[in-house]
Amino acid sequence: MRVAFLGLGAIGAPMARHLARAPFELAVWNRTAAKAEAFVRDNPAARMASSPADAARGAAVVITCLPTSHEVEALLGGPDGLIAGLGRGAAFADCTSGDPATSRRIAARLAEHGVSFVDAPVSGGVIGAEQGKLTVMVGGGAADLERVRPALDAFAGKIVHCGEVGAGDALKAMNNALLAIHVWTTAEALVVLEKAGVKAAVALDVINASSGRSNTSMNLFPERVLTRAFPRTFRLALLDKDIAIAADVAREQRVPAPVMQLTAELMRMAHQQLGEEADHVEAAQILEAWGGRQIGVDRVPAAPHESTDAELRAEQTLEQPL
Ligand code: NDP
User: Fold this and answer.
1) Which helix (H) or strand (E) holds 109?
2) From the CB of residue 41, how many other CB atoms can be counted at a distance below 10 Å?
3) How far does residue 122's CA lie from ligand 1's centre (Å)?
4) Terminus-to-terminus CA distance in the chain, angstroms?
5) Three-class SS of residue 116?
6) How far is the CA of 33 from the centre of ligand 1 (A)?
7) Three-class SS of residue 166?
8) What does the alpha-carbon distance between residue 286 and residue 23 come to, in Å, rounded to a whole number?
9) Residue 66 Cα, ligand 1 centroid: separation in angstroms?
10) DSSP character string of 205-250
11) What single-letter DSSP state applies at residue 298?
């Protein structure tokens, strides 16, 4: 099966690696060509495409994994765009954590060219991608899912058909809204407890054996905050984008979702303050600065943390089901 993969970012590259072997024939394209060059050096069975159109030419399945649906939409048109290369009968799966409205627009535009579309955002983080155990949440027609399933299977542990086009995006956004809320409120609880005289390690030990626990309290805070490692695996900018999508979906559905709307504002503020490269868990440092206490450390916080190279490498050892 000929597959094109576009977007060799933090999670895209380890996903694409599973397709760089038989029975697949893989073509890759990345905006920054150096990343695609490095990919084909490490995966010689893959071909480096010169443009999105070149990647799509002859492909039975095209997969994209870009920051937002807008970057995917922007790759469709023009002489070098995906549509110029896609043949009628090809199938498209967008693994971006996208937004439902743009996905529906992309699906309609591709349908005019005889190309099927599913939104297929993933969960499981960089580690899940490396291990080929991602959960893929798919929006689109059942037959359209079947056409891309063999390619998705290469990096998935679980594939769930969620509904029509946009359903995967909506579910992914809500999942990540819950993640953002957990990161923010776990930081709130721990800064308060530290100031009230309860050490964060003791607090997490109890919470993780009690009803307030979450993946954030069980994995993210012990591995990243208590250790002060703050590895950069999933950018806060992307979590900000995800919860903003969730808040939009709630508004579209006319459901008052005050905690989600407020946390979306807080994530936007944290993103603005900490910058494009900060990891999502670094949002806890905003609470530490407000409370005047670092979680798990007996001192007043320094300025928001900048990860060192050693800490970036430490990410490889961490579990991160995002
Ligand atoms: P990164 O920021 O690491 O990578 C983004 C990728 O998109 C890069 O290949 C980048 O190219 C490319 N890109 C950015 N802007 C454009 C553009 N205008 N045109 C073409 N290509 C562009 O993101 P991730 O890999 O972390 O995330 C990708 C998607 O997966 C996001 O939607 C994210 O929310 C989702 N996701 C990420 C997870 C994670 O753990 N990282 C977990 C689950 C979902 P270039 O190299 O040139 O910058």
Assistant:
1) helix 100-111
2) 10
3) 12
4) 29
5) strand
6) 14
7) coil
8) 48
9) 4
10) HHHTTSTT--HIIIIIIIIIITT-----SSBHHHHHHHHHHHHHHH
11) S
Within the chain, which residues score under 70 in pLDDT? 298-322
For the chain, the residue count is 322
CA atoms of 232 and 283, how far apart (whole Å): 12
User: From CA 261, how far away is CA 113, in angstroms rounded?
Assistant: 38
The SS3 call for residue 257 is: coil
Tokens standing for 278?
Answer: 């900060």
The pTM (predicted TM-score) of the whole model is 0.91
Cα separation of 166 and 164, whole Å? 6
Report which residue type is found at 47. Answer: R
Distance of alpha carbon 155 from alpha carbon 135, whole angstroms: 9
The continuous run of DSSP H or E covering 59 comes out as none
CB-based pocket (< 6 A), ligand 1: 7-12, 30-32, 35, 65-67, 71, 96-97, 122-123, 125-126, 233-235, 238, 322
Active-site annotation holds for 35: no
Which letter does DSSP use for residue 64 in this model?
E
Q: What is the pLDDT of residues 241-280, one digit of tens each?
A: 999 999 999 999 999 999 999 999 999 999 999 999 999 9
Q: CA–CA distance from 248 to each of 184, 185, 201, 256 (Å)?
A: 20, 21, 36, 11
| Pairing, β 134-139 against β 122-123 | antiparallel
Q: Which residues pair with 4 in a beta bridge?
A: 27, 62
